[in-house]
Design brief:
extended; mainly alpha; 4 helices; two-stranded antiparallel sheet; single chain; 2 strands
Length: 174
């Protein structure tokens, strides 16, 4: 087998790399300028969106009110004539020339107020079959004792990961 080649050099960057500390400082300044420009553009965009939203909100309200009234009126008529529209309950929908109406039964659901109190009440009545116990890894404990779990398949501990962060200096306004 051929020996695997080891590449010592980094591939060439597709962008200019600073050669001096002053050039690097200037690039950090440019990063700050570009970041602030993005923030300015985002603010301007959000201002324009707010103006457009305000302009259309006034137009939506009367249309939404009319739609709500029409929906209620159709529902009142259909409830009063449900037996006729569903052929005596054989169907869950009724047809018109311009569309259909439907009655759909929602599936049962459970709503809970005060989860802890409900769990305690179920326990006191011996109804623990309605309480779910969730098993999950305690990652904090694993990080505290990494040598104990060293041989466990599927478990690895990452350490020494380093992030590079550039923070241009900026004045804060109060």
């Amino acid at each position: 087998m051929a020996a695997k080649k080891t590449r010592i050099k980094q591939p060439a960057a597709a962008f200019p790399v600073p050669g001096t500390k002053d050039e690097c400082a200037e690039m950090i300044n440019q990063i700050g300028n570009l970041t602030r420009e993005i923030a300015r553009l985002t603010t301007a965009m959000n201002d324009e969106i707010a103006v457009i939203t305000d302009a259309y909100t006034g137009q939506f309200t009367p249309i939404q009110d009319e739609l709500k009234n029409l929906n209620q009126a159709v529902q009142i008529y259909c409830e009063a004539n449900r037996d006729d529209l569903t052929q005596g309950g054989k169907s869950k929908s009724g047809g018109f020339v311009t569309g259909t109406v439907q009655w759909r039964q929602r599936p049962p659901s459970v709503s809970v107020r005060g989860v802890e109190a409900v769990i305690e009440a179920l326990k006191s009545f011996g109804l623990t079959r309605f309480i779910r116990t969730k098993e999950e890894l305690n990652k904090e404990a694993i990080l505290n004792e990494p040598s104990v779990v060293a041989g466990v398949a599927g478990l690895s501990i990452k350490s020494g990961t380093e992030d590079f962060v550039i923070s241009p200096f900026e004045a804060e306004v109060e």
